[in-house]
Amino acid sequence: MKYRNKLKYRIIIAFLALSTLLGALFASTALIIRQNLSTNLIGESNKQYLDDYMDKFSKDPKGTQGEPIATNISAVLTTPEKLPLNLPISYADLTDGIHDLTEDGRQYKVAVNKRHIIEGREIWGFVKIDVTTPDNENKLVYSALAGIFILFTFIAYFLAIYASKKILKPLSQLSSMVKEQSKHPQLLAKQFSDDEVGQLAQALDDYSKQLTDFVDRDKEFNADVSHELRTPLAVISSTTELILSQPEIDEKTKLRLNRIERAVKQSAELTETLLLLAREEQKTDKNLQRTQVGKLIKDIIENFSATIKLKKLNVEIIEDEWLQVKAPAAVVSVALSNLIGNAIKYTPKGTIQIILKDDRVLVVDQGAGVESEELPKLFDRHFRGSSVTAKGSGLGLAIVKRLCELYRWQVIIHKNDNSGLTAELIFK
User: Fold this and answer.
1) Tell me, what CATH number does 119's domain have?
2) Which residue of 177, 257, 269, 325 sits 20 to 30 Å from the alpha carbon of 246, by its own alpha carbon?
3) Which residues pair with 413 in a beta bridge?
4) Does 351 lie in the same domain as 243?
């Protein structure tokens, strides 16, 4: 099963990731805009200084001699044939306008004016300013942005926690109400607004109603069948007793009637147990009497005596401990009858051992067994192993499992070393 974070943490992580991405984009954009605005502003200012000076110079060359173009820049007025030696020769190829140049590892903005002709000569003007950002200024900007970024991250974290609580509050309420359904059933949808959570609550209401209807029908069917079977079983039982009371009955007929009587008793026990399962209630003896398991097993073996003789099986009852169970004999009988009956049904020949411990019964057979991957499925309704050839409905072990859940017992089936299976019915 894959590990999955809680929805709350997913929201927080997503919120922080989005905040981090937006913060990084904001910081990068701010730096780029700052740099562009700074250099463009400087370039435009220098160009404006140069243009103004050149206009004045073209109108009054003598009056503007010695007047500086600007106090914070390096400026040169020259002619094409007398380009100063302190200017790179490449400046002669620069067009009119603003240029970004790099010289000796430093960044410069160079404004160029080549539009004026004074006294028949072409005059060139160059304004050059160093726009290299100092290291300490960069560090200060980066530190400020980093501090703001960390601050925004903390703010985003607490906002994410608050937002996740607000977002998940309806889901938490729905979860709590679903947990309380078993104690206090109620409609969920009417407690929420018509949003995604409300739609989920409505779906849960619909599913709960379908499941409740299904369980109710199942219980009613089991209860009705169990109740209606009592009458014919009682008639068969009373009729058998009446026939057995007649003195002229021969031994062979009496033996068959005894088998019918045991079968009726077994059917009555099964009917009573199914009724308990339908009602999902434990039945305990008011006088706290316990069921003696050893005697019950002997009666169960007697019920299967015809099959045991026909298959020539050897059934051993090993009573290591004197086991008693605080539960109705009918319930214990149904559980053990299914386990012992399966061992007899699926063992073609050999020995079946029924071992009584202080808290459990072990039924060890020598049948064909099942594949290891099929063991967990044995208690599923209607499941039958791939190697099983005998007839059956696949309901016996499912009934045993439900009885164990009802009485908080435990049933375990595992493979033997040589052949067959061992079924353990543990009474706790």
Assistant:
1) 3.30.450
2) 269
3) 423
4) no
